[in-house]
């Protein structure tokens, strides 16, 4: 989990990210965006996201940072009017590391431009500490973990999806191929 955090930091996604024990989407919630397939990179950076064409509404995603590659499985769906990318670790045959949960990223694609907005853990930490978010906890003082069911996590996000404070800085990626 820490390795993916480091990889996301190198892509320009600040801080770590909240995780969920359950997925954000049920199979009925999942959509496909064929235009996501390809390699994506932040201008001036060398690391990249490589998404294979979706198979059964799942994308194989490789996050390449230097000579390190993190293997993930991603799905796309909507919460209200907002599109999210749900990612989870996929066991890498060369490395037993895997993310033990799901992360969610607000995305917006227009042609060869992909905007990614990570969820801000600080936003959720404040809600947890104020007693306003019962289906989440802070683990070891480092990670926010959503502990609710898929329906509860969706409802929590749906209620806040329009709050800009919930998201980190926009990261603009461009298609390489």
Mean pLDDT: 86
CATH topology of the domain at 2-14 and 24-119 and 162-175: Lipocalin
Shape: globular
Instruction: Give me the Rg, rounded.
Output: 15 Å
Distance between the termini: 28 Å
Number of strands: 12
β-sheet strand percentage = 35-45%
User: Which residues sit in consecutive blocks of at least 5 with pLDDT less than 50?
Assistant: 1-15, 93-99
What is the chain-wise order of helices and strands?
Answer: HEEEEEEEEEHEEHE
Label this structure with key terms.
alpha+beta, three-stranded mixed β-sheet, eight-stranded antiparallel barrel, 16% helix
Protein architecture, described:
With 177 residues, the chain is of the alpha+beta class. The protein has a domain at 2-14 and 24-119 and 162-175: Beta Barrel (Lipocalin), CATH 2.40.128. The chain contains 3 helices and 12 strands. The strands form 2 sheets. Strands 3-4-5-6-7-8-9-12 form an 8-stranded antiparallel beta barrel. Strands 1-11-10 form a 3-stranded mixed sheet, covered by helices on one side. It starts with a helix and ends with a strand.
